[in-house]
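Anyone up for a design puzzle?
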């Protein structure tokens, strides 16, 4: 997505046209305009107060829920220019639907370049104490600094290998189902990366690793261990625990604790909703490091940095070339407040 000077004004000018005039921009001209402004067809549809299904019905006379991919391309010469965004939107929907990382970050910030100097605050209870200040005396300060915590982003992607013969008879709607599932798998990779960053720190170095608290007994978990971590984050670090991240084995251990068992059986078995230990949401993560429980304040701990949103090989899709089509993003996570999470670990005796 582009961020050159004046691009926001250009976007507003283009999308703010009268609907009848805006609708006259079609096909290749529309595709090129959206590309130059860093917009998608989704933005275009919202400006027209419509969606892709209704637009295709009105402009091309096709029903996306029933038409095959082959017939979609044959329906109108302008239809092919819309296809890359149909693919992209389906994958993005999957990336945001099943993965949990969107609920565990401060925000998703778009940046220029693949390296980012992360502004951060090093908190000190003594230096930041609010106290009486005599006339002319120095006032305690909180300093936002940057320059020595550089996070480097890398490219993450997945290939789609399929012959056009395998795709052409498939309905567009069913293709979107398969693409959404690919998006979910991409999102799981981001979940795994976030779990690692929350425990070990981001790519700027080990200085951003989480504070660790040992369980009372090695290789054993009891309710008091959760309380200890909760109090450490709440009272010592002065953050509000919002989530607890655990892998499958640790989740089962927590669910079986006497403190939760009755409420779990009443609600979990009935609705599938997991309990909220001490008011924090329990989040099962397949790739959470074993024997470690991450307790975090999702409003302060980590932000997602994105240099490139999901990129599809548009030229290939427009020309109906499906063999080895790749979907890529350039992104990573950065720790903002080191102390906004605690890791309780049971493997300290090893």
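Challenge accepted. My sequence:
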């Amino acid at each position: 997505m582009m961020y050159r000077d004046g691009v926001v004004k250009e976007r507003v000018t283009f999308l703010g046209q009268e609907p009848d005039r805006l609708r006259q921009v079609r096909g290749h001209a529309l595709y090129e305009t959206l590309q130059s402004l860093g917009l998608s067809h989704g933005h275009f549809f919202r400006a027209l107060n419509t969606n892709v299904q209704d637009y295709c019905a009105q402009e091309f006379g096709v029903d996306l829920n029933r038409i095959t991919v082959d017939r979609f391309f044959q329906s109108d010469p302008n239809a092919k220019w819309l296809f890359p965004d149909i693919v992209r939107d389906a994958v993005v929907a999957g990336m945001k639907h099943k993965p949990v990382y969107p609920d565990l970050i401060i925000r998703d910030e778009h940046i220029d370049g693949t390296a980012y100097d992360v502004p951060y605050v090093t908190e000190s209870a003594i230096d930041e104490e609010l106290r009486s200040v005599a006339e002319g005396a120095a006032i305690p300060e909180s300093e936002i600094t940057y320059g020595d915590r550089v996070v480097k982003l890398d490219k993450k992607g997945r290939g789609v290998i399929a012959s056009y013969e395998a795709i052409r008879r498939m309905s567009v709607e069913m293709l979107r189902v398969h693409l959404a599932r690919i998006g979910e798998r991409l999102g799981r990779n981001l979940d795994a990366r976030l779990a690692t960053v929350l425990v070990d720190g981001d790519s700027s170095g080990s200085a951003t690793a989480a504070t660790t608290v040992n369980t009372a007994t090695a290789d054993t978990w009891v309710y008091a261990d959760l309380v200890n971590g909760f109090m450490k984050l709440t009272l010592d670090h002065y953050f509000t625990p919002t989530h607890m991240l655990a892998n499958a084995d640790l989740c089962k251990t927590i669910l079986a604790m006497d403190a939760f068992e009755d409420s779990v059986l009443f609600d979990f078995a009935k609705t599938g909703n997991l309990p909220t230990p001490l008011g924090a949401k329990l989040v099962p993560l397949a790739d959470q490091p074993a024997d470690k429980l991450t307790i975090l304040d999702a409003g302060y701990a980590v932000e997602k940095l994105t240099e490139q949103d999901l990129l599809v090989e548009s030229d290939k899709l427009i020309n109906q070339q499906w063999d080895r089509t790749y979907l890529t993003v350039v992104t990573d996570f950065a720790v903002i407040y080191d102390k906004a999470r605690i890791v309780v670990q049971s493997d300290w005796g090893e």
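A detail worth pointing out: The chain has a mean pLDDT of 89.
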